Write the structure tokens for this entry.
Amino acid sequence: MAFVQNFPFMSIILSLFSGPLCSILSGRKAKWVNAAVIVIIGGMSAAVLGFVLGTGQEYVYTMGHFPAPWGNEIRVGVLEAVMAVFFCVIMLLCMLGGIREREEEIEDTKQNLYYIMVNLLLSSLLALIYTNDLFTAYVFVEINTISACGLIMIRQNGRTLVAATRYMIMSLLGSGLLLLGICFLYDLTGHLLMSNIREQVALIHANGSYHIPLLVAVGLMSVGIAIKSALYPFHSWLPDAYGYSSLSSASILSSLVSKGYIFLLVKIFYRVIGFDIVRDSKVINVLFVFGIVGMIMGSVSAIKESNIRRMISYSSIAQIGYIYMGFGLGTTAGIVASIYHIVSHAATKALLFVAASGITEVSGDSTDFFDLTGAGYRNKLSGIAFTVGSLSMVGIPVFSGFISKLLFAQAGVGVENTAKMLPTLIALAISTVLNAVYFMKTVIRLYTPEKKAVLEKKQFKQVKMTEEPAKSFALICFIVLNLFLGLSSEPIIRLIENGLNMFA
Amino acid sequence: MNLGNLFNNYGEAVAMILFGIGFSNLLLQKNLIKKIIGLNIMDTAMYLFLALKGFIGGRKAPIVTDGVQSVEAYINPIPSGLVLTGIVVSVSVTALMLSLTIRLYRRYHTLDLDEISTRLRKEGL
């Protein structure tokens, strides 16, 4: 066995143990430990990606001394490695972008606690990506929830406390359903390892027995994860949680936490149940409908919102709707589009959150839409970054959002079931127009010069790029990442397809 | 539909009813403490379900005391292990929820989440 093959396990353990280590360090040192851990894990994941691409096949890493049906396993393919690298990059940039806000908003004595949460979050995300065991996945889903809740409530005011409580309640409902689904599957198949469950499920399906329990299990797990990742009717916790928490928390939550759950759902569909059986079970049709409703309703709520942070949060609901619509199409092309959208949305939404904080900073820390007039002139880089993010969300060519919309449209046209083709295309068109309404409205507001009298009265400050090097660096990286995803999407799409082939 | 199955597996049916009670409490109750009680009922129902899945009539818990090593003598230990893990998860989540409740109560002197939200909106925070 090559040494590189140990890296997935090591990266989970490294981030898991660096959490407790941060608890005895001072805030400053914890910050460096955290950054180093993310960089090291990113490097290790890149090495794993190189290794898997080199051998061209997945590998299974046995945990402990017990072989397959009893022991616990890690499974690494191309898609897992791509996701791990990408999550590390986004997390590092989110942490960089929010340094100043973190240090202002969190009490000095609690600084190090923030890094514990981030390290635990990273380890749970990695475990969700790599694990081959359903019950382990459930345990790490809970760790993910707890650390995400910590990230929301560490900025102490009434809003974040209520948001954290609502988030916990909805997440617990979701994980209750997920656990019930897993128990049903265990009951039916007698296994907890994904590959073993899949064999048994295929047998059960071929026999035609236990049709309803299997349907119930798939349904429970899908709904549980849909609640946790804020699919449309279950989104009530999201705007407050993203809108009032600290900047790094908001961008990490929107771009990584919900995506981790969705990736787990992809794994459940492909590796646990088998995608054909999921398609036959009609559960995806429900996801399809709610995805489409979410695409429209999320954007409508965003148009009505005047707080810019909450507006970006509502836009997340619409984007989650896109991802579930891709699942609902029931074709591999749809899943590829969804996974590409996971990547592109993570890159864009984090960019928007960081840029929005730069914009509000030069508008007297007000998040109100009308106070932002002319902010694009006062903080040039944030203005440009926000424009890039908006254009990408709307789906203008050159930016990453365009590619994902193109993939969704292609997948929609390629669907055999024509009843799904028209709703997909119409929803895409309407949602794009709605996206354009609220994002372009904000961009125009940013570049409308403010009256001199108002400027003198309100004493808005100007911020240059060099004043906050960390944030500027993060913003530039995000812009480059966005352009990269938009301009050279071909190799990434091929990686995703390659990874999905390994899944099946 | 065969109702006989429902009566033969009455334990599982009770577990599902309890799960429903806990779930709706967690979702619908206004009082935070009652929500947490709902959460615990929901989790306990899961443990009951798992324990029933591992149980085989007439066999003992898989702890070797009298030298019997045959597999036939013991129940399936894996669901019991899952229950233990589940308890750990549930304890930590409950602790987190309770600490959040204490924070909210100290600030607003009420346990009603909706009332806190309305008050927040009035304050315009």
Notes: The CA atoms of residues 77 and 420 of chain A lie 31 Å apart. The mean pLDDT of chain A is 91. Chain A has 22 helices and two strands. The interface with chain B takes residues 135, 138-139, 142, 145-146, 149, 153, 157-159, 161-162, 164-166, 168-169, 172-173, 176-177, 179-180, 183, 186-187, 192 of chain A (CB under 8 Å).
